[in-house]
Amino acid sequence: MAPTLVILAAGMASRYGSMKQTEGFGPSGETIMEYSIYDAIRAGFGKVVFIIREDFAESFKKILEPKLVGKIKTAYVYQSLDKFTEGFSYPVDRVKPWGTAHALLCCKEEVKEVFAIINADDYYGKEAFEQAYTFLTKECNETTNCILGYALANTLSENGTVSRGVCAINDQGYLTSIQERTKIYRKAGGQIVFEEEEIETPLKEDTRVSMNFMCFSPGFIQLCEQEFVSFLHSKGQELKSEYYIPYVAGRFKELGLGQVKVIPTNAKWFGVTYKADAPGVKASIDTLVANKVYPTSLW
Question: Which residues of 138-280 form beta strands (DSSP E)?
Fold first, then answer.
């Protein structure tokens, strides 16, 4: 069975200010995720599962379905605050989704094969999908998952801070720990740092980070469900707490369930965290089209 691509598209885009998941950036109005889907199809993926919010499902499908029909199987799952929270209470004024690991948990009934997961608003590159497909079809099993590790310097925004899963890797190329850093930026002098409680900590340019491009066996979704219970007990009353996939990947290692391989890639990321990122994204796609990496019209 061909691998599945899962796309995280339920975020609220609070820093961007509009629905960036469905905004057109390509010369024929393509969204960023369409380039990922195109790369996934030519790498050999057989299905794409979109994790979205039900309130914009109709408009989302209207944009994507006519383009993808006959090219790849599609499915949709909806992330909402009440899913998998039976028996727990949370603040009535909370609106922020529970995070990426909860989003993946919402795929429990839809994803039964090995899969890769990505963000809708990040561009990853053709080579990364080829690497993911090779891993999923040749190495992935219930005890071996992977993260595509991007060089930190290739993943920064010129327009504000970014969140990245910072990886610690052993000599064999396997993850030993991962820390979600939510405020990473390059200082005026050039040094990259992450800031926590107003304390700056330097990071190396070539530090490998997770861009939420990861490959898993379906059993990983069960671990997301198991660990979500602990998350709700400890952080379920916070208005903005988030349950991250990199955290669960770290727990996979800590619990002795297996290894997480970090596959290095030197591809340059681009994406839309802030509205000011949009012109740069459009220019980057125009360059890729000019260099014949993609056709002028994908579909």
Answer: 144-151, 162-169, 175-186, 192-196, 199-203, 208-216, 259-265, 270-271
- Could you tell me the pTM of the whole model? 0.91
**What are the structure tokens assigned to 225, written together?**
């469900």
Q: What does the alpha-carbon distance between residue 140 and residue 212 come to, in Å, rounded to a whole number?
A: 17
User: What's the pLDDT band for 20 if we cut at 50, 70, 90?
Assistant: low
Give the integer Cα–Cα distance in Å for 24 and 252. Answer: 37
Helices and strands (H and E) in the chain: how many: 7, 13
Q: Region 248-266: what's the mean pLDDT?
A: 92
| 176 burial level (CB within 10 Å; 0-12, 13-18, 19+) | middle
Work out the average pLDDT over 82-110.
Answer: 93
The percent of residues above 70 in pLDDT, for the chain, comes to 97
pLDDT at 158: 86
Q: How far is CA 98 from CA 112, 152, 223, 238, 244, in A?
A: 22, 25, 16, 10, 8
DSSP letter, residue 113: S
Q: What are the backbone angles phi and psi of residue 243, rounded to the nearest 5°?
A: -100, 105
pLDDT at 279: 93
* Amino acid letter for position 109: E
Closest CA relative to residue 4, chosen from 40, 33, 39, 32? 40
> pLDDT tens, 196-222?
999 999 999 999 999 989 999 999 999
Q: Domains in the chain and their CATH numbers?
A: 4-290 (3.90.550.10)
Identity at 271, one-letter amino acid code: G
